[in-house]
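Thread: Newbie trying to understand structure tokens

Hi all, I'm a second-year student working on a class project, and my supervisor (Dr. K.) asked me to get a predicted structure for one chain before our next meeting. I've only ever worked with sequences, so writing a 3D structure as a token string is new to me. If someone could post the tokens and maybe explain what I'm looking at, I'd be very grateful. Here's the chain:
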Amino acid sequence: MKSLSYFVLCLILLPIISFAQAEKQDTLPPFLYLRNGTLLKEGEFETKGGFFGKRFRYNNGDKINFNDIKFYQGEDGYFANYYGRFAACTETGTFDLFTLIEQSTYYDNNGYARTSSTKRYLYTKDFGDLKPLNYDNLKADFSVFPNNDHPQEEKIILNLLEQGKQRRKKKLVVLLSGLSGFVVGTALFASAAGPDNSGVFRLKNKGLAASGLSVSLGGLVTSVVALALPKESKSYLESFRTYNRTY
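---
Reply by user tm_fold:
Sure, no problem. This is what the structure looks like when written as tokens:
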């Protein structure tokens, strides 16, 4: 009876113990990895200021140049220094994925300022150099697999890469076709107009003007459709994640 009670108690406590161990492993101590290969652990450096105004110093008070920092692990997460900006690590594995949010401001037709955000994906292995998540970089890193134990997964990884490449080509072709149609249509419409005897610009050839307007609008619609096509980065992300799940 005592053995049964002990067994039940273990079953109750096991999830709690496992959760505590997992949480402890997920909480990494602060560190700085410098571009010269120096790893500064907790107690060897200190930070000042908030995330956007963070300053780093050695424990003796000497300043650490921000540009000399390659990776930073703190209470607010794991980051890589990408040309003077912190990119947050959003996925870890054989390769770590970093995401950089780039914001741009533009003004609409009413003169109001609008802000748009774009995600830039970067990745690295261990403390290596950051690479943009694109076809050429992934193809080079995935060209030699660690072993041949996962032939089906390897096929999926490479197929997803090729899918992203084809998406990029298709998008470029459609976009260029749309822009070409817009330019040609605009030129046709402009050629249908000209000054009359009084010097006022009027439509001389309504048929040509209508054709030019139609071609121009068609090109504009095609360009918008090209921008709405699935991004190649989606396929590259799926390939990247499949690789990390496999290896």
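A couple of things are worth pointing out once you decode it. Residues 1-25 have pLDDT under 50 and may be disordered. The longest helix spans residues 151-191. Feel free to ask follow-ups in this thread.
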